[in-house]
TrEMBL record:
The active site is at 31 (proton donor), 165 (nucleophile). The keyword Hydrolase applies. Homotrimer. The lineage of its organism: Bacteria, Pseudomonadati, Pseudomonadota, Gammaproteobacteria, Enterobacterales. One of its GO terms (molecular function) is pseudouridylate synthase activity. GO terms for biological process: nucleobase catabolic process. Its cofactor is Mn(2+). This is Pseudouridine-5'-phosphate glycosidase. It comes from Dickeya zeae. Its EC number is 4.2.1.70. Keywords: Glycosidase, Hydrolase, Lyase, Manganese, Metal-binding. The keyword Acetylation does not apply. Belongs to the pseudouridine-5'-phosphate glycosidase family. It comes from the Bacteria. Substrate binds at residues 92, 112, 146-148.
Amino acid sequence: MSKTDFEHELLRFSDEVKDALHTGKPVVALESTVIAHGLPYPDNVATARHIEAAVRAEGAIPATIGIENGRFLIGMSDADLERFGATKGIVKTSSRDIPVILAQGGKGATTVASSLVAADLAGIPFFASAGIGGVHRGAEKSMDVSADLIQFTRSRVAVVCAGAKSILDLGLTLEYLETQCVPIISYQSDDFPAFYCRSSGFPSPHRLDDPHVVARAIDMHWKLGNRSSVLITHPIHDSDAIDKDEVESIIREAAIQAEHEGIRGPGATPYLMRAVAKATQGRTVKANMSVLISTAALAGRLACAHTDYLRQQNQA
């Protein structure tokens, strides 16, 4: 884990997060795109608070990350959450966009990739997200690969999620992560999950059922000198899951329609996600909330286990 530089010119810590990091309490980083580019205000703020509450319920401290006035916000106060939730037009900021948004001094909503940059700088070893990006379908022609995957190779942060979105080429996503030597651990599951779906149809490289063993595996990865992330997946609750075959059928039809309409690049993902939401009559809204909460809770639990493990190592 990186040592925290509380005086870093690009970081502004909330008092709660600063105290937690200073005293060695477990902290979980969270993205802010869910606030600025998710639900409308005030539902977006309420959702962010539910996610933070899930982290707290497991004994960890949430650190929602954003960009404002030329610095990363490492942890948001209630006022920060309200401001980000109520402000329209906040730029969705991936890792490549960070220097420009910082230089302009404006607001930025962090994605998975940019949140990992900030978490690594801040010395926060855990991050939670409902789902990660990956290799897009047709990437052999479009070269459309999410910046999330690239950032996994650069940030020493454990990423807890419900797998990658079903609209992606999950087989190629797993191949890419294997090539880049990013460990994938499925917690209490044999399969790699697919966001709304409990299984992608692909087996996970590793299954671990004990949070303390997960904590040791993360520590071992970094002790080996690796600068990359560890990906920890956990499937959506069975009661909230959507059938994989149903989702796949919707995606295939929507992808054909998107091609006819000339929708490619950044516009493809929201187009396909809207198609799935419409075809499932809004069941994806419930599913999305389910994975937001469950991944945050698991990240909190694992962060606590990791903190306990490090304390035991220091006392040995």
